[in-house]
């Protein structure tokens, strides 16, 4: 198979769909942006898997770099391997991987045909929502390392992080809840069938008494597991609350459940009635549906993160013979020599052994400018290397490095969770419970003078009919619907219990870089003499050699089709670059840097407003002009800030310097702008606002915001890839949807209003039911109709209301 390299302006890669800037690799007359994409195509072509490209145009993942040969050697370590696999016996192994690059049907098809690429793989299946790949393989035919290396070679490298080694067994909470729901549903359906003749005959049990007794006993047998198993969570919660001297919503619910069961058993065994087992099981069934809605979360999103989530699972180490080995990070000891390559994170505090390097600490501090580090200086954990591969020696273990200190604050202490706003139902329940008990006792006393039996009947009837099932259902169904609508609009919230905190917002705190502005985008323009395509090619060739973000942005902006070989390259930190290209001398940098070498005097361009950065250009001693590099605001962000300023107290916290401060003075008051903020200072500022009774929403994108996000009342992690790793937070928002944040807050407030309206509807049902109960007219037919009707009507009302409100606000309600 022959391939050739050509140059082109706007050719699209056959594999990944990216533009082929500069060199284009051809194979079988198909263009590829790099040799990596060509290699993936060749692997698939050799194994007759070209159907991959027929399912979708350019379905592949860009693959422009290939790691070192020893990158996955750590997977040969039995201790690491055993901690990663899900199941293992003598020959069979099962393992699952998180693969963020899964994005379309073609990806699923390819990954489920891995057995054609490796004969040791028995089966592979994809869970698209979780971006998870499950693989079963024979250990005597292949290995974990070989499988991961294969996945990486076709552009689907698994996301292996340090936290994976400490993963706990999966929770079975949802499985138990489904079982309880199944038991309640089975009992509810069958008891309704057994009770059907009794509904038609009314309350008369004088005929065929043994027939009614037989079915009554069956109803008791069916109701016992519902009482002891399906409703156990409510009974345990109520008992725990009472023991602590509190009353939550589960207390009146439990009273109603126990009253229903005891009165029903009494009526059936005494032969005076058919009982209310249908109402009991129906009540528990609907309550469990509400609880299931409440526990439903988006498992593919990760809301709670610690430092282990950000570190890779391995690092390249050097032995005494300078040979490279891949080592698991949790086995990394103090004094180990390691090699860190471009864009890799430093896993532990280390001393630089190479001459010098550049480190990007924006992941930790928020400062977007790379820092130059000289030989012998410390490079802190969490820094990202920018430039050529560098050798370091660790001075601390991973668990003792600077990165871990971000989690030492009490904000990350699971035993001291930030105070949550109790639900409206829980705040109402003490008053509701006491009111119901007062009505039941007074009604019982009034009927006592008439009949002791009637007094007991009325007392228990009040407790039964006033069971606040509708109250318990209104919150999970309203907020559950809201949760789904938020998700369909790119706003993924951790759970329904935090939506009320969003609705009560009084202050909003923004991070700058990566949140209001896009760190990897910039608005670049050139002022001065017109540049030819050849001159643009010279500038691009030089700027591509630099690690400085301004140089990178200029190189991307120029985007010339005439790249050239660069010689005599020299870069002076915070000054500029000098280099020779095609025999021409180029100077790129500040006015002071190039003015001494120019035959014409560079124009002084003031940047006092801080609206943009200026980079001057000189070719062969002739000053050509300057590039203006300005922050690129996210779409709609200025309108959003104007809206927020009129509604909330707004603040800007940034790890960057204040060079661009004036850009934000139109949207924030002077005291609200804070620059050069460390992660600890951000966290402390959130605490200060909360001490002043502010309910704070924090919106940030980086690890440096993790403490502030965790401390805030509602932390929102912004990302341009919702499947990627994010800091600990209450919600994840798609970066393109930030402009709708005002609408999201409004919708959360409307959702709380709908809950209050549903409480009013529930109160009407209770008043009607109490009227029947107090007057001694609560028949089985009335109870059987009224209690399920109230639950079903609340579910319909809350679901329809939230969807109607979302549609009025312009939110997408269906996918």
From TrEMBL:
SUPFAM superfamilies per UniProt: Calcium ATPase, transduction domain A, HAD-like, HMA, heavy metal-associated domain
UniProt membrane topology term: Multi-pass membrane protein
CDD domains xrefs: HMA (cd00371)
Location within or outside the cell: Cell membrane
Residue ranges occupied by any HMA domain in the UniProt entry: 93-159
Coiled coil ranges: none
Keyword hit for Chloroplast: no
Keywords linked to the UniProt accession: Cell membrane, Ion transport, Magnesium, Membrane, Metal-binding, Phosphoprotein, Translocase, Transmembrane, Transmembrane helix, Transport
Transmembrane regions: 177-197, 209-229, 249-266, 272-293, 432-450, 456-479, 750-775, 781-806
Taxonomy, superkingdom: Bacteria
Keyword DNA damage (UniProt): no
Principal location: membrane
Family membership noted in the UniProt record: Belongs to the cation transport ATPase (P-type) (TC 3.A.3) family. Type IB subfamily.
Identification of the protein by name: Heavy metal translocating P-type ATPase metal-binding domain-containing protein
